Amino acid sequence: MNYYTKETNFYGNLSPEKLIERYGSPLYVYNESILRERCKELTSFVSYPDFKVNYSCKANSNLSLLKIIHQEGLHADAISPGEVHVLLKAGFKPKEILYISNNISKEEMEYVIAHGILLSVDSLSQLEQYGRLNPGGNIAIRLNPGFGIGHHKNVITAGENTKFGIGLENIPHIKQIAKKFNLKIMGLNQHLGSLFMKGDIFIEGANLLLKVADSFPHLDFVDIGGGFGIPYQKQDNEPRLELIEFGNKLSEMLTKWAQDYGKNVKVMIEPGRYIVAECGVLLGSVHNIKQNHSTRYIGTDLGFNVLARPMLYDSHHDIEIYKNPPSCKFDPHEKVTVVGNICESGDIIAKERLLPKVDEGDIIGIMDAGAYGYSMSSNYNNRLRPAEILIDLEGKDRLIRRRETLEDLMNCFN
Length: 414
Ligand SMILES: Cc1ncc(COP(=O)(O)O)c(C=O)c1O
Known about the structure:
The model has no long low-confidence stretch (mean pLDDT 95). The chain has 2 domains: 4-28 and 277-413, Lyase, Ornithine Decarboxylase, Chain A, domain 1 (Beta Barrel), CATH 2.40.37.10; 32-275, TIM Barrel, CATH 3.20.20. By secondary structure, it is of the alpha/beta class. Helix 7 (124-133) packs parallel to helix 8 and helix 9 (199-213) packs parallel to helix 10 (243-261). It has 12 helices and 18 strands. Strands 1, 11, 12, 13, 14, 15, 16, 17 and 18 form a 9-stranded mixed β-sheet that branches. The chain has an 8-stranded parallel beta barrel with strand order 2-3-4-5-6-8-9-10, surrounded by 4 helices. Bound molecules: pyridoxal-5'-phosphate (PLP).
């Protein structure tokens, strides 16, 4: 088995054992160098001159990571006042944030307007509501181009079976409402869905949006969406998303379109996962091993309160086993089911996975857990969210969010 963390010197000057000893288990560990590398890959992805990467901070909104992402020159998209709050604290300017809304209240709209952040609406009714609240204001529109993509039905965010976006047949209505309230449509955006591994489908979607953009002559930007995938099955040599040819093709299309459009238009993308997934590993501890009928269960402290993706989407995460105490002995592999400590039978991280022999006391590493890991964690079963630490460019560890305490569970009752 190839160990991703060894190849990347993921833990810097430390070891998983040392980290757990120092910060407790479970623990989210992030590697700064990988984070910066992913940011750079996407900021230099196309040669189209007016190009911006908006980091979709729903993937991970840890303050320290956001600061690094901002330093790397990314802007952001947000979907809630909570995300805006943290983005502003991390140093993002209101002009660097696009608020991509869905079913928001009048109060939430007022919050966004008051902060000077551009709002994108995704229904005619919300466009009307915005017009009433902020006549003469600037607005963006989230369109649904009619088809979507994604690794699971729940993350396909365009097409017929989703709540998102305004259908293209409603474009005349969009224009009518904008005229009625004297709104300036600054930009169009779309997001087809999450996790594509071939650029062509994304280019097809972008092309569709650009065609629609032709009928809006005064745009400042088009945002062609996120969804850039990462290889979750590295141990099986899954190839990466090929960015060079993809970027070249996209640049060519954008440049040609901008010439025909006749005005300088900014082009944005809104990736989340690609930026943060691979810089994060979730460490946990093996507390129990048992055989139940034909299944060998590895019982850990990694319940779906800590990492929800396997339970929610049947997602695969590669797993590394760190013997505790460390050993260089080669152990035979065994097929096991790795589970957490939550009171539900679906609390499974990996089903019937072939792993090096695991013993109680070993440490387990869940790879590529930086996106939709901590941000989807919860207090279900009144369990506490783990700490998050950063391995910096010098290989040193730094606590970037403390572990919750029992007192944190009582905060809202005070
Ligand atoms: C509107 C929008 N933009 C961007 C993203 C980021 O997607 P990904 O993390 O797959 O790049 C999402 C994810 O749900 C989204 O809903």
